[in-house]
């Protein structure tokens, strides 16, 4: 008896049965990956849907538009990154400036792992702000201010522990760090090397401890 081989269906990928909450999570996780690599303007909704095998109808069940999707992805990324910052910057087993260096080492590992295709979603969207919907401007600034506050607290610990001078303006130093950090991440993606992150971090720490 001849056993026939199962036919391989061509065309669209099969729809994958998922719970509603799982579908939302899959869309947001995929959105973080794709938008971090490609940016908002260059990414079509169909690109995301094909990657995760979600029908367009399901997408519009959660999001009214690409703009709403982009903002939800940004908020998910902000939550993810805030947890990462807390993991490193609140680690009282390390001195405050070492906590900052540990955060940088983790970022270097992540960029290397993804072969420098991914950088910082907030930085990427910031570069597109001229062509983004106006609603993104305040969202992005709010995320950066949140990161700034978290690093400010770490630098204040550095003051208390004598790593940097008592006259240090920790909030201004934190703002300076994030402005420079986004540039360093961009340069690292450009040259496909973590060296720009080291150059910036070494310069920042040398400046605050002078």
Short description:
The protein is an all-alpha fold. The chain contains 9 helices and no strands.
Number of H- or I-type helical stretches: 9
How much of the residues is beta strand, in percent? under 5%
Low-confidence stretches: 1-15
Radius of gyration: 21 Å
What is the CATH topology classification name of the domain at 74-208? Tetracycline Repressor, domain 2
Structural class computed from helices and strand pairing? mainly alpha
Oligomer description: single chain
- Give the integer mean of the pLDDT values: 91
State the CATH architecture of the domain at 74-208.
Answer: Orthogonal Bundle
Order of helices and strands: HHHHHHHHH
Within CATH, the superfamily of the domain at 74-208 carries the name: Tetracycline Repressor, domain 2
Instruction: State the share of residues found in helices, binned by percent.
Output: 55-70%
CATH first level of the domain at 74-208: which class?
A: Mainly Alpha
Alpha-carbon distance between the two ends: 83 Å
Shape: elongated
The biggest beta sheet is recorded as: none
Q: How many strand segments?
A: 0
Characterize the structure shown.
This protein is mostly helical. It has a domain at 74-208: Tetracycline Repressor, domain 2. The protein has helices spanning 20-38, 45-52, 56-62, 66-89, 96-113, 121-127, 135-160, 170-191, 195-208. Helix 4 (66-89) crosses helix 5 and helix 8 runs antiparallel to helix 9 (195-208). The longest helix is centred in the last third of the chain and has 26 residues, at 135-160. Residues 1-15 have low confidence and may be disordered.
């Amino acid at each position: 008896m001849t056993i026939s081989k199962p036919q391989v269906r061509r065309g669209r990928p099969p729809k994958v049965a998922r719970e509603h909450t799982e579908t939302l999570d899959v869309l947001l996780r995929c959105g973080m990956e794709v938008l971090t690599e490609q940016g908002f303007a260059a990414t079509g909704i169909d690109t995301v849907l094909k990657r995760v095998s979600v029908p367009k109808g399901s997408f519009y069940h959660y999001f009214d538009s690409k703009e709403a999707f982009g903002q939800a992805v940004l908020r998910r990324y902000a939550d993810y990154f805030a947890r990462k910052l807390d993991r490193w910057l609140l680690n009282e087993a390390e001195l405050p400036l070492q906590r900052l260096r540990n955060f940088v080492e983790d970022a270097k590992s992540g960029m290397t792992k993804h072969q420098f295709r991914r950088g910082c979603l907030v930085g990427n969207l910031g570069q597109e702000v001229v062509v983004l919907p106006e609603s993104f401007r305040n969202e992005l600034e709010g995320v950066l201010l949140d990161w700034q506050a978290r690093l400010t607290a770490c630098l204040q610990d550095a003051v208390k522990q004598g790593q940097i001078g008592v006259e240090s303006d920790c909030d201004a130093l934190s703002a300076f760090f994030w402005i420079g950090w986004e540039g360093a991440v961009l340069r690292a993606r450009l040259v496909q090397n973590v060296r720009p992150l080291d150059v910036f971090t070494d310069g920042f720490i040398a400046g605050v401890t002078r």
